[in-house]
Design brief:
It holds the Pfam family DDE_Tnp_1_7. The chain is mainly α. Helices cover 53% and strands 0% of the residues.
């Protein structure tokens, strides 16, 4: 196919046209919302121990990032940083020399910043901490410095990349 174009006289054009029409019908059917009988909701699947009726976004987030998961991320980030420091010959002026262990509360802040960066998108990460009011993201500097965020992210991302290989 590639750069080929379809014309209405082409027999394969009809197949594509018919297929998109049926997809459109399916989408229309999916858009038909109906009420839910709150009294007769099916039981929760195994592993899920809460309902989300009227819950806040942070409560929903905490279902997936509970204390155990956040603690695990913190300990693995810390472990990766320690291994990196041990295995590399770092100069005295290296930023990594100033590494301090990360804890669960900092991991929650990092996750929050990552979510914020998905909502408020900027072409360069350092713009989130910019001194220029036009570029900065207010209050982000109060949560965490750019250097600390970058150092945690290097260990955090490196650990994820290593596990996915």
């Amino acid at each position: 196919m590639g750069s080929e174009e379809y014309s209405e006289s082409d027999p394969s054009y009809e197949d594509i046209s018919d297929q998109s029409d049926s997809d459109e019908d399916t989408l229309d059917a999916a858009r038909n919302w109906c009420g839910i009988d709150q009294e007769n909701i099916a039981p929760l699947p195994p592993g899920l121990n809460t309902r989300m009726d009227g819950s806040s976004p942070i409560e929903f987030f905490c279902i997936f990032f509970d204390d155990d998961i956040v603690g695990y991320i913190a300990s693995e980030t810390k472990r990766y940083a320690e291994v990196f420091i041990e295995k590399n010959d770092l100069t005295p002026s290296s930023k990594v020399q100033k590494w301090k262990d990360v804890d669960s509360s900092e991991i929650r802040i990092v996750l929050g910043i990552i979510i914020l960066q998905g909502i408020v998108q900027k072409p360069l990460q350092n713009w989130y901490w910019s001194q220029k009011s036009l570029l900065s993201t207010p209050h982000l500097k109060q949560l965490m410095s750019e250097k600390r965020f970058s150092m945690i992210m290097k260990s955090f991302i490196s650990q994820i990349m290593k596990q996915s290989i």
